Structures
1.
Amino acid sequence: MMKILAIVLLFNCSIVVGQNKLNIVPAPVEVKMGKGFSVLKEPISFMLTNLEDSEPNDGEALFEQYLKTNYGIKRFQYRGKPDINLATQITFTGVSTEEEKGYYELEIKNNNINIRGTALGKFYAFETLKQMVTVNAKNQLVIPNCIIKDYPRFPYRGMHLDVGRHFFPISFVKKYIDYLAAYKFNTFHWHLTEDQGWRIEIKKYPLLTQVGGCRDRTLIGRYGSNKYDSIKYCGYYTQQQIKEIVQYAADRYITVIPEIEMPGHSTAALASYPYLGCTKGPYKVMDTWGVLDDVYCAGNDSTFTFLQNVLDEVMQLFPSKYIHIGGDECPKERWKTCPLCQKRIKDNNLKDEHALQSYFIQHIEKYLNSKGRKIIGWDEILEGGLAPNAVVMSWRGEAGGIEAAKQKHNVIMTPGNPMYFDHTQSKNEDSVTFGGYNPIENVYAYEPVPKELNAEQGKYILGAQANMWTEYQSNERKIEYQLFPRITALSEVLWSPKEKRDWKDFERRLPVIFERLDKRHTNYSSAYYDLNSKILPTENYEGLLFKLESKNKMLTIKYMDDDLKAQMNLPQKNEKGEKIEVLSDIYWGEGKIYKTPILIKNNNTILASSYKNKEQMSNTVVQKFLFNKATGKKITLTTQASKSYPGDGAFTLVNGVQNEKGMSKSSEFLGFNGTDMDATIDLGKDMQVSKITLHTLKQNGSWIYLPSRVEVSYIPYYDSTTISNDQPIELVTVDIKQEDDINKIEIIKEKFCRYIHIRAVNYGLIPSGKPGAGNQAWLFVDEIEVQ
Ligand code: ACM
Ligand code: ZN
């Protein structure tokens, strides 16, 4: 039987009539609305009972601080015993031990607040209360009268932060922990070591932070840019600071799990102590992103001595049951040619280098187990055999997690889609993010227990976590932008009962979430209000349809086309004489109201945006259409594009959108990995053709190559149903030089024809010495223009 405690907050009486739905995230298990509001007046009186509970609890103090900071409440009173004794017994029916740990009941009635629950439950009750306090029209602090019963669904509710790629000071780490606490997360996964920086002081190995804590420069822009700044970038946490963070988190009932990466992602450590690598260096702390071949030597005993000594200090600092040891993305190149690693394989009868990785992880697991700790590793630790007591963090999709659960191992789900919060949440992203599209509705819809598992196996899913990798996040505002509002959606996935999840009701609460974030000056993405657009073919292949859509159906969409702009006599050029493409918002009142997809028949530039009353809520969509003889026409592909870059299928190549150099959107391209683009366009009738232009992309740093050759066949129309074999088909071939810095290929030919068959031959294998050497090249095509 659990211990019970009760707290009574007594307030002066006054009733305000109002709302009948709460705006709490994550949604509580059970809510019964009462009538009206209770009013909070100074001094706020806390009445505490049954505090024999031995666990520390800062719930009251943090709540008091919250009211002080946000509402200026200064006077609080504490009394030891309540005047009225509350029930001291709670019956938990249908609640598991894990759920019981976070259970609370909250009753707000007659200007009293009664909280019953465990010490942890009481903490969560205060977090719920914080979201319930509002100011009414009379400027009073009020809380809606209601009864709440609440407890968490999953025992592991995590958020991760990578401080290796970019370093964040403890002031921000505390803020991040506050965000976790506000949404009832209980685990902070702190990714402390990386190729680009070692961030935790280890007394026995001072060079880890002196050398490994600094890199000479940092990549600018996206991976593959090959551009660097010239700024030395350093940062690490002292052991004192780490202790401060661990305590700060514990005060908020959050466990900090440190991650010390091995055997890969470790060049910062190798740069500090080159004897840890197979080749003995020299190594440098990495200045770009990606996966590196230099990893800890698995054959040298001194690697294990080093790691055990490091882990000894880590365990002193972090009382967590789990220590995360990484295990992901470890290339085996060095091990294949290292005599010590090969000896280790032979001496231990290991099958190959994958088995050596498994040996490595199991060795470390044994050590940590002997100290009473358990390991968590990324799903690669399944390869070559899972360490006996390991918890698997499934990040390359869900397959690793499913496999581990079937092997009766505990699992934390964190699949890249949709749990990587470094991926974009908007199709109109204007800042650099890691690929991938993980919008809030996908996060909200995520179900951590895969349907491939039966009920028994499903119990091994401890919960889920979202990851915040920081290659492209160098400042605190950006982290907040990537975190919010997705963390609120995830909190509901992890806390609220599965059957309570309701996207419509979450949408109702989202504006309130945004309002609260605004009040606290927290940055967030408003991608939820994005206006998304899609170009569609017409039924008769004449012209194009431009479809506009907002997730929020309450908004009005307005747009302008070139005709309207001309009628309005708007300035066409700015003071510098440059053509104005994007009009300022002041013209928006004049826009046409969008109802159905817009038919486009000629060159045009559409501007569109969505509004709530007169307030612009979304981004402005600007879509330029350039027409040619192929635009909107029927097109077929012999081989479809890769699933990674599918565009809108073959139609993408004739949709009137041409990417301009340096402003390319990958969604506008078809990507062919190692395969050719082989397309046939039907112009509808015989036409005079003079030139074909293939719009492509060259970005060798990202494995994207020009085709090696383009072949065009011009096929005349013969009768209404067939392409005649007797007709002279003209074939024109152009060989392409890879050195050319071009993004379009022109084939000039005068011809009267109906069908055009175009084949762009993939470059093939990427040559050695180039990024991605040995892999198949990508061929990217965004438009086929026929003049
Ligand atoms: C990972 O994203 N490499 C775990
Ligand atoms: Zn080695």
2.
Amino acid sequence: MTRIRRTLAALALALTLLAAGGCGKEGSPPVKGPSPEALPAYQVATGFRLPASPTWRKAKRRGYLVVGVKEDQPYLGEKDPATGRYSGFDIEIAKMMAASLGFDPKTIRFKTIASANRETALQNGQIDYYVGTYTINPLRKRLVGFAGPYFMAGQSLLVRKDENDIHGPQDLAGKTVCSVAGSTPLMRLQADYPKARAVAYDTYSVCVDNLISLQVDAVTTDNTILLGYAAKAPNELKVVGKPFSKEPYGIGVPKKDTALRFALDDAIRARERNGDWRRAYNATLGRSGVPAPRPPRVDRYPAR
Ligand code: GLU
């Protein structure tokens, strides 16, 4: 097939999926998008001050927070193209953090930042903090700070529903596997499974389009992200095998802003204690089928 024909075929399939989602195709479960009514409202801290944080001071002067997120990850960080509104578990985490920092969550300006650009966005002050399936690891900790973790994910594999050869990462030799530039799953794929043919794009949704249009054999990233895509297209896609890594999600902050990092650590703990974390999970990520786990322990590491 020529490139154009392949693209057209992918487009047709995407439209079919869209139509199926819209009117509930017979025999398929209804698409369970996060319903905004069920979302918790977060109490905004009054009189909260954090003068030791340059990021917080700048946001106060500006009057609102700028938060980096993803826009194409169902149940996590998703932007509605019609309304421009963002929804998902990471969006809820961003909102509850804003409320704890004394900002009305409704005033947040969300900014979509791809995996490969997160560190520079934080270093350049383009965003105040980042909430978007952002794995805490030593390499990244050299460049940015991390509050949390607030969730534990694990690398997994997404394949087409009719795929019979791939059951786990051991089956990837000779297969074309798609992931995202600047992500930990891509690095692990290249380092630990060198016999797989790795392909990298800027976003996971492009990988999924490529999977549906038969241009790649699998997509690899966190189970959370993949379960979201599978839940949206249960007749076309499935997640296989057990997670084969630990991906602790943190909130990225500018590296030197320890005051902000500690305030967010406190806020995560408080929101886990008062039930907001669980309510947010149930209204978002929980809808892709996995019941609320126990959140991991916050790692309040010292300033460095
Ligand atoms: N959690 C992984 C990472 O931070 C994969 C998801 C993503 O690219 O955001 O790289």
